[in-house]
């Protein structure tokens, strides 16, 4: 099975466009860290907080990217929360090197309304952004 290795610049490029697409640009036979289909990918080193959805499948991700799985929440809702709070989360990291650690992200308090409400919040944000265009 082939896995893709996603360098930071590829994830960033598509996260900026927010279209959820990633490019396959390299293959590895021995993936170290794997993201799965529909995971939310977030850059945690370098340009911090840029996000994209994994719409490819099982892929190898580099050290500067973390994958979030929507076990307890709607990933669109979680993406908006992280987008709104990324600088606050980064400040909590207390590191000389800019970045977000796994531990910092795991300890971030996330307001988690019922999933139906999360979907309503996401839909409202999307509608408001469409009106601004």
TrEMBL record:
The keyword DNA-binding applies. Keywords: DNA-binding, Restriction system. It holds the Pfam family Methylase_S. GO terms for biological process: DNA restriction-modification system. SUPFAM superfamilies: DNA methylase specificity domain. Transmembrane segments: none annotated. One of its GO terms (molecular function) is DNA binding. Residues 38-125 form the Type I restriction modification DNA specificity domain. The keyword tRNA processing does not apply. Belongs to the type-I restriction system S methylase family. This is Type I restriction modification DNA specificity domain-containing protein.
